[in-house]
User: Fold this.
Amino acid sequence: MSLLIVGSVALDTVITPFGKNNEALGGSATYFALAASYFNQPRIVAVVGEDFPEEHVQVLRTRQVDLKGLEIGDGKTFRWSGKYGYDLNERDTLATHLNVFEHFHPKLPELYRTSQFVFLGNIHPNLQLEVLDQISKPLFIACDTMNMWIENEREALGELIKRVDAIVLNDSEARELAREPNLARAARKIHDMGCRKVIIKKGEHGCLFFTPHSHFSAPAYPLESINDPTGAGDSFAGGFMGYLSRVGKVDDLAIRRAIIYGSVLASFSVELFGVDRLLSLSEEEISSRYQDFQEITRFDV
Amino acid sequence: MSLLIVGSVALDTVITPFGKNNEALGGSATYFALAASYFNQPRIVAVVGEDFPEEHVQVLRTRQVDLKGLEIGDGKTFRWSGKYGYDLNERDTLATHLNVFEHFHPKLPELYRTSQFVFLGNIHPNLQLEVLDQISKPLFIACDTMNMWIENEREALGELIKRVDAIVLNDSEARELAREPNLARAARKIHDMGCRKVIIKKGEHGCLFFTPHSHFSAPAYPLESINDPTGAGDSFAGGFMGYLSRVGKVDDLAIRRAIIYGSVLASFSVELFGVDRLLSLSEEEISSRYQDFQEITRFDV
Assistant:
């Protein structure tokens, strides 16, 4: 079934203790779409500037990403720059230049308006709502968000949460959104806010999934070397939504499996700088790592 | 098969945001033995003072704990006092009075020397080694340790690690012992130090188990209310060793199941103050929570 991602396409400059990436292809929609491309042909709605390199467009095309919704705005492409220390869970943003992204309003091509699976990447909740107003009868909507919107746009975010099927956020965001340190209780509060599927990413500690009636815990893959954590969360979301849209199901078991596929794609993504690893994957590598997750969690035959 | 624990029996004074315990029954061997008592009749080697209340002895006897190795020393019982804030992962030690524990040298009753399963609770590594010198042909030895010994007694600890089958420690201890922040690599370094089964407890993030050839990740139980985290690690170890000694196996699958049973006992232990929850458990509650762990981790039928 069809899959739509609305988010950012950016030029990332990233420094980690293990190397540096300069104005590389990045952004939430990019990581999402590349990860999802192993399951489906995702549709992107995003904006880039006139300076966006043609080679990056070709990279996305090579992975069969549908770019009819990629707008070219007047001005320069969104640029983000960040630095990681040896604790790769912590990063400093060195610079954010929104450029064309500053006045972005997502406009869905006609064909995209009937997309069945929709992921609202981390943009202003009012823009996420604008996307929903252009969509008719989706089967499954999930959204991301971030601390800035939780702190400053709680009302719009509350409106959004009522209209999505699932929210994907990290543990500190879940605690802040629910104003509750205990994650199980935080998830319950988010259910009460109107979203019944809460997926909480914990980085190296894996991922939790709460519905009002069930709980699932996925481990992290025990990576011995991580080169660049940028885009891990978006790769997770891409693998997650990619799998769901391929099987066309949203029951509890499908979502659990999708979380494992999301974890698989995220674990690959961080092995190399930028999107490099997401360009070189094979079906065999993905299914082999999925089997590793089965082995990692097995305790009853 | 027989199970021996060597560790501390103490009087604990604990303050959490949810209540207070004054000179309550505590200590690593106590929590261990009570948790293990749901699987076996553990033998305790420890020391208490002349002031140790008879009612605490009765509590242990009621749970069928074998107290032939519980020495009564000249002086007062080991006392520990600690305080937890709202982040129950952090605690401040308010006071430690070793008393009779200061000059403790474990002496195993004759019958205990052929114990098949042995757990060396967190005491000085030289004392842990003294225990091993008194044991003949055990089937499985596991040990705990702590940051103080890692920092100050690295040589003795290195000697110990070569002589145990498994080490159970928390994530910060594993990082410090291996001098390596990545837990997968830290585990590999501990394998290289001579111990092939490394079990790393991560509190609210569950538990990891590494051998040179396999990896297992166990989730934490999603508790919504924790009253007193004291003894969680020892309860884990007690459930873990209790299960192994009951089934008399130490293969990879048995250890994975034992880790789940350890997690079950730890999750119960923290629900009430001190050892209270470990005194009121039923077989049904334990097997029901074990099934919850199966449900929490299931993603392939």
Observations:
- Chain B has one domain: 3-297.
- The two ends of chain B are 34 Å apart (CA to CA).
